[in-house]
Design a protein that fits this description.
This protein is mainly alpha-helical. The chain has 17 helices and no strands.
């Protein structure tokens, strides 16, 4: 895609679109503006408000990165935009599930934390990569949203949405093929906070067009999560809603990319990492809600970083593999 990047860079306005859509595509580790455009259109067709919040978050975080004079190469590849996209998505979802605020107002409140997200990504992220050889992934995004959620809960408890405690539900999966297929797809769609099968299928198709290996690895991770969670008797609602399994999808994609030189090794490592990520995800899915915090992508970060760091005596090699994987998308 270097030819497209060169063409867009020659035109200032088009280069802004290039950076914007790269940021959106980087949410699922694809460095491609066309993929970002297609994903944006798919989201906008079914969930226009969610899509608008994500795009606005991407624009704000990119603008902050430019203001702070962050590395131009990282900005142009959407490495600051994707975390802002996630902040925008999270602001919309939290406004529906946690706080009695309209999405745009919650995003306005979140502005300082989007700024914090960029600062942490540029500062601590750079230090972390130099010390460990691994990227910081979405840890700054998680930190920003957790601080925002905690502050709002303590300073404005009246904004909290009071929900009736749900009845205990320990039903297991029915293990019907339609339910399993839908759950696997929804886990993939929840990477973009999407919980319906149609949009999830469209997003999977878009990802497969631009990176078949990324799509295959994501499906593998989703399948492993459903299998382990189902066999362990996990609450069926947590499994079928996809509100936890997307973390395993992301872990599988990253690990498969790090070991992609060998198909067998890549598949084996992605399988092991997905299993580890599933256990981490299920554990945090029990702990974090009890603290009043959303799950977000913290399980993905902790599971993926611990898995990669434990395997390699030379983490910088893994970082190069991840960078090369993104550039080839």
């Amino acid at each position: 895609m270097n030819w497209l990047y060169a063409r867009l860079t020659a035109f200032g306005q088009l280069d802004c679109l290039n950076i914007l859509f790269r940021g959106i595509s980087q949410v699922i580790f694809i460095n491609n503006p066309l993929a970002g455009l297609c994903i944006t259109l798919a989201l906008g067709a079914q969930h226009p408000r969610l899509c608008a919040m994500g795009v606005l978050g991407c624009m704000l975080s990119t603008a902050f990165a430019v203001y702070l004079r962050c590395p131009a190469k990282d900005i142009s590849e959407g490495l600051f935009g994707f975390s802002g996209t996630l902040c925008g998505f999270a602001a919309y979802i939290l406004s529906q599930s946690h706080f009695d605020l309209p999405p745009w107002l919650l995003l306005y409140v979140a502005l300082p934390f989007i700024y914090l997200n960029v600062v942490v990504t540029a500062g601590i992220g750079s230090w972390f990569t130099k010390r460990t050889g691994l990227p910081i992934f979405t840890l700054p995004y998680n930190l920003s949203i957790y601080i925002l959620t905690t502050l709002l809960a303590f300073t404005s408890p009246e904004l909290l949405i009071q929900r009736a405690e749900p009845a205990a539900c320990h039903d297991c999966l029915s293990w019907s093929w339609p339910e399993i297929a839908n759950t696997i797809l929804i886990n993939f769609g929840q990477v973009f906070f999407i919980g319906d099968v149609l949009t999830s299928t469209v997003i999977l198709g878009i990802v497969a067009i631009f990176s078949i290996s990324c799509a295959a690895a994501g499906l593998l991770g989703s399948l492993i999560f459903v299998a382990i969670a189902g066999l362990s008797g996990t609450d069926s609602q947590l499994v079928v809603s996809g509100t936890a399994g997307y973390n395993v999808v992301l872990t599988s994609i990253v690990v498969a990319a790090a070991f992609r030189q060998s198909f067998l090794r890549s598949t084996a490592m992605a399988t092991l990492a997905s299993a580890w990520s599933t256990f981490v995800t299920l554990g945090l899915a029990t702990l974090l809600p009890s603290l009043g915090l959303p799950l977000l992508t913290l399980p993905f970060c902790l599971a993926t970083l611990s898995f990669l760091f434990s395997l390699s005596k030379n983490p910088a090699w893994l970082l190069r593999r991840l960078v090369q994987s993104r550039e080839s998308s």
